[in-house]
Amino acid sequence: MLWLAAYIASILAINFAFSLFPHLDLVWSCWAGLIFILRDMVQVRFGHWSLAAMLAGTVLSYLLTDPFVATASVVAFAVSEMIDWAVFTVTRRPLRDRLWISAALSVPVDTAIFFGMLDVWDPSVWAASFASKLLGVSAVWLLMRARGGRMTVAA
C-alpha cells in the first residue's frame, strides 16, 4: 500500500506545485522522474489496478489544483500510462528491462504532451523533465541489475 499511497500523493503534489508556482517548472520537472518510478512499482504490485490509481490521483488533482494543469497532467499521464501498461503486459523481459523500455517509450510522449498543453516551450525545462525521468529509472535499473534483477515491491 505504501507504493500506491506514494504514487497517488505524488500526482496530487506535483500538480499542486505546478499550479501554485509555475515559474519553478524546472524544479517540478526534475521531481516528475519520481512519479514514473512510483507508477512502475504500482504496476508491478497491483497490475491493471495501476490505472485506477492514476485515475484517483488525477481526479484529486482536478478537484484540488488548477484544472488546466490537472487536465494537461491527466492527458499526458493517460497516454504514457497506456504505453507503460502495454510494455508491462506484452513484454516478457525481466522487470528491470520492462521498467527501462517503458520509460524510454513513455517519457518523451508524456513530456511533450504535458508541456505542450501548458504552452511551456523552454528547452531546459523539457530536457530536465526528460533527463530526470530517465535518470531515475536508469538508477533503479542499475540497482536491480546489481541485485541480479530482484527488487522487493511488496510494501
UniProtKB/TrEMBL annotation:
**How is this protein named in the record?**
Uncharacterized PurR-regulated membrane protein YhhQ (DUF165 family)
Q: Report keywords, A-Z.
A: Membrane, Transmembrane, Transmembrane helix
Q: Which organism is it from?
A: Azospirillum picis
Q: Where are the transmembrane segments?
A: 6-34, 99-118, 124-144
